[in-house]
Amino acid sequence: VAAVSSCCPFLLRRFPENYILLGVLTIAESMLVGFACLRYSTASILLCCGLTAAVVIGLTVFATRTKTDFTGFGPYLVSFLLVLTLFGLVLSMMASFHATGFVFNGLEVLYAAGGALAASVFLIFDTQLILGGGHEHEF
User: Fold this and answer.
1) What global pTM score does this model have?
2) Is the CB of residue 104 less than 8 Å from the CB of residue 87?
3) Angle, nearest 10°, between helix axes 42-65 and 102-131?
4) What gap in Å lies between CA 120 and CA 54, rounded to an integer?
């Protein structure tokens, strides 16, 4: 799906091809999530689902109600995502050399927190772009 959307972007704007690609992407993503969920208990999956829903609803309400404009944060978000990606690559290399210990575990927690922060700010950023309003950049 990614190759088709990269090589033939016009297909994403034509009916019914766009719905077919969306369906294929949805099925592939649901299979990925399903296989990942096989490794965890039902209670932990439901807990994560509930926490994610609460965070998304809370951040969406915040993005619609706040006077702070997050639409100008685009370049900073891309920079943060690049740093987070490179940090993940370094952690992967460290893990391949069997790095363990208190410092490595702390770096993993820091990486997870950075990913959660990035996803949260991206959600606010995108929500404000979509909804428009009195913000600097509107969708």
Assistant:
1) 0.72
2) no
3) 50
4) 12
